[in-house]
Amino acid sequence: MNEVSDHLDYGLTLVFIGFNPSLRSGEVGHHYANPRNNFWRILHKSGLTPRLYEASEDGELLKLGYGFTNIVARPTRGAEDITRDEYRLGRETLREKLAEYRPEVACFVGKGVYTEFSGSSRVDWGLQPNSVVDGIHEFVAPSSSGLVRMPMDEIIGIYRQLNDYISKEEF
């Protein structure tokens, strides 16, 4: 199965970082393509996007200053299928990408993604007090997977905090 291409560029306000692509994303070549994933609805309802985008339009978000990548590139059925070696390599590669592209904010889509990246065992939602990559603000948001048991209003509220933060900051 093919990897899903990153959507990265210099000067981005925000980069969304997931665990890895779903099998559906690998099939179609777009981020957050599983129809049970709520990512696109969350972005719209939180005010991060002016309209509801579809996964096939993921590259269009570069125009909004938003990019996409993952800690592991290989599509799997679930994060539990990612190996320790893949995480080790993924951490190094992700640090290199963030250091090169220097987005203002790195948004980790799920606490597990951030704990794998940072090595921190205790992580709260929202802006992190210490950044792994100097000069980049790190924000932890809930996973958008349809398997998440958190109420949708709470998830949207955390993403709304991200929207408020990037709207107020003068990067």
UniProtKB/TrEMBL annotation:
Record-linked CDD domains: UDG-F2_TDG_MUG
Uracil-DNA glycosylase-like domain location: 9-151
GO biological process: base-excision repair, AP site formation
Gene Ontology molecular function, alphabetical: pyrimidine-specific mismatch base pair DNA N-glycosylase activity; uracil DNA N-glycosylase activity
Family matches, as InterPro entries: MUG/TDG, Uracil-DNA_glycosylase-like, Uracil-DNA_glycosylase-like_sf
Domain of life assignment: Bacteria
Keywords: DNA damage, DNA repair, Hydrolase
PANTHER family: G/T AND G/U MISMATCH-SPECIFIC DNA GLYCOSYLASE, G_T MISMATCH-SPECIFIC THYMINE DNA GLYCOSYLASE
The name this protein goes by in its record: Uracil-DNA glycosylase superfamily protein
UniProt source species: Paenibacillus vortex V453
Lineage, opening ranks: Bacteria, Bacillati, Bacillota, Bacilli, Bacillales
